[in-house]
Amino acid sequence: MPLVPPPRTAAVPPPPPPGEAAPAALLNANAPEWSVGDLAAALKRTLEDSFGHVRLRGEISGYRGPHGSGHAYFSLKDGTAKIDAVVWKGVLGRLRQKPKEGLEVVATGKITTFAGKSSYQIVVDSMEPAGVGAWMALLEERKRVLAAEGLFAAERKRPIPFLPGVIGVVTSPTGAVIRDILHRLADRFPRPVLVWPVRVQGEGAAPEIAAAIRGFNALTPGGAIPRPDVLIVARGGGSIEDLWAFNEEAVVRAAAESAIPLIAAVGHETDTTLIDYAADRRAPTPTGAAEMAVPVRTELLAQIHDLGARQAGTVLRRIERERSDFRALVRAIPNPDAFLAGKRQRLDLAEARLRPALAANARDSRERLSRLADRLTRRSPAIAVAEARTRLAGIDHRPRTAVLRTLERRRDRLGALDRMLGALSYKAVLARGYALVRDEAGLPIRSAEAAAGTPRLQLQFADGAITAVPEGSAPPPPAKPKRAARKPAPEAAPKPEAAEPAPAARQGSLF
Question: Is 130 in contact with 106 (CB distance < 8 Å)?
Fold first, then answer.
């Protein structure tokens, strides 16, 4: 498309005279005048109108992952040239093949310019590996990564139910695959089938397949929509590009996470996809998946009939063997009369021996009783009781005599102690003409000075007590009474019954 110059706004010099060459200023004045933005916009329109959408093959270079905005920037190059490429954020999430450094791809997009850098670029709408070799290399790399995570491990595989109640099928509802599966299930063992329709190739197929697998697993057992007991993910044959949806990481992870046993039936027997490694069983064809899902009903009926016949035959043979054994036992049992003859004979002999034995036993018992009566006569209980009483009386006399002797000794000792008490008592001193002087509290007074300071004195004589009041200073007592006063009366001496209660309280008992 030719570039259309903008309208001229500058003044134009007058043309030269005839026959003369136009000056350079006049030639420059005829050239159109562009602004930078106008030129960039004109180039952008020309480039986009001339090329539009193109398929571009090249090697990814300079890819560092999505930018902070979510867009991806890189270059496509071959041996002679390089072109910038950009994948917008919304497109990047939908790409079947994500950009990867050094990967040779075929990118489909629109050629445009970027005025900020005075460069042209391709805005990528879709991307796929370039050639079968690139597809296989990418497949092997993804297989290696997922296998390292353990998604293909044998211990993750679960057994397929022998006879599922409900079968879930993830496939296209319009292809021949679903008809083959339903026809094969009807031939072998009809079962209820739930079909989750999905696209099996092209853009958006992988997310639909992964969502269908997870959707079946999300059903509640016993709910309004029955939860399948086994899943079949199926598709007909095709090229590696056609089957690539079943190599996507989202589909493989959904198959590995499925709690429902899953049978993968993608392509023909020679086709292999990554879902085959993550599934619990791999079927060579969709028809083979139906055969794995259910047994043959007629074969089961025949097997049940055969087992029933074998069981009936076994029971009959057991009954016949038991009957034969019973007949043999009956023949081995002796005649009842012969069996009881010996018992009867032993009973007769025992009866014959019983009468003499009873008579002999009675005779022995009478003899023992007679001997016991003689011994009882010679050793009468009355005599034994009398002898026991005599021994008891002798035994009783000895302790009584010992007790009387002990009491006598204690009585004598008590009399001696009483005499000693009388000799040592202060009352004996009072009987010789002395007196005991006490204060009002009943405490003995041992000096004249103490008596002068006491307002009232108690004088204890042998025949009674009187109260006295001291006057002035008392003269020293005579020598003899003084000597008698140095001998203190025992503190334990009893007070008189009526007049002297305090000393009597201090008198102890001899007992």
Answer: yes
Percent of the chain exceeding pLDDT 90 equals: 34
* Confidence (pTM): 0.46
**In this predicted structure, which of 76-80, 211-215, 275-279, 370-374 has the lowest mean pLDDT?**
76-80
- List Cβ neighbours of 109 (8 Å cut-off, separation of 6 or more): 53, 54, 56, 85, 122, 123, 124, 125, 126
pLDDT of residue 97 exceeding 50, the answer is yes
Nearest Cα to Cα of residue 249 among 126, 104, 64, 95: 95
Of 193, 141, 198, 143, the closest CA to residue 175 belongs to 198
Q: What is the secondary structure of 106-169 as a DSSP string?
A: EEEEEEEEETTTTEEEEEEEEEEESHHHHHHHHHHHHHHHHHHTTTT-GGG--PPPSS-S-EEE
For residue 64, the one-letter residue type is R
DSSP element (H, E) containing 366: helix 336-378
Beta carbons of 75 and 83 less than 8 angstroms apart: yes
What b-and-e string marks burial along 144-178, b requiring 16 or more CB atoms within 10 Å of the CB? eebeeeebbeeeeeeebeeebebbbbbbbeeeebb
Which helix (H) or strand (E) segment holds residue 213: the answer is helix 205-218
| 151 vs 253: CA distance, rounded Å | 7
